[in-house]
Amino acid sequence: MADLIHPDLLDISVDQELALRTAAVRLAGEFTGIYGPETIERFLHTSYDQFATTHTIPNYLPLLAERFARQRLQALARVEGHHVDGKPVVLFLCTHNAGRSQMALGFFTALAGDRAIAWSGGSEPGVAINPSAITAMAERGINIRGEYPKPWTDEVVRAADVVITMGCGDACPVFPGTRYENWDVDDPADLTPEQVRPIRDDLERRVHQLLDQLTITN
């Protein structure tokens, strides 16, 4: 592949560059026949840029960039008609993508299984998942520890059939033809696990209702 050093990645280390090269090869293999190296590298670079200014563990950045680039490329493939499987796509959006949207995503993924696709994002992404949200979800047998706050992008929103918003207000993106639903759910930021439980249970109820509306049995 071509040189992966991006003009904006001024402080990238040799190890990070190698990790990005490896990620580009993996993504190229996954999207063979759909997207070429230039598109994959562009998505990988812009995904890296999203996290480079907020995350303090440099060696983790290429992995985050790869995961986010993969999701964005999957979304773009749906938008452009390269991937049609009939599964509904739900996008959960909140402010920091560290609490409400991640808990909703956890419930939806656990209950829907492989019958639907779910993503999440934030208008002002935080750095890490709310530890109280992680604890509260673990009490339901759902592990969201491996998730990470991320922004939304146009292709991710455009690929969604349903966009659930929670507290992002006017910052939430709006595209014609997409179903939008706002959930009035308290923000679990700075709350204890005990205080998060009612929020968790409210989200669980709402996700069950959404699954019923989408005729996804659980």
TrEMBL record:
<dbReference type="Pfam" id="PF01451">
    <property type="entry name" value="LMWPc"/>
</dbReference>
<keyword id="KW-0059">Arsenical resistance</keyword>
<dbReference type="Pfam" id="PF21234">
    <property type="entry name" value="Phosphatase-like_N"/>
</dbReference>
<protein>
    <submittedName>
        <fullName>Protein-tyrosine-phosphatase</fullName>
    </submittedName>
</protein>
<feature type="domain" description="Phosphotyrosine protein phosphatase I">
    <location>
        <begin position="88"/>
        <end position="213"/>
    </location>
</feature>
<dbReference type="GO" id="GO:0046685">
    <property type="term" value="P:response to arsenic-containing substance"/>
</dbReference>
<dbReference type="InterPro" id="IPR023485">
    <property type="entry name" value="Ptyr_pPase"/>
</dbReference>
<dbReference type="InterPro" id="IPR048716">
    <property type="entry name" value="Phosphatase-like_N"/>
</dbReference>
<dbReference type="InterPro" id="IPR036196">
    <property type="entry name" value="Ptyr_pPase_sf"/>
</dbReference>
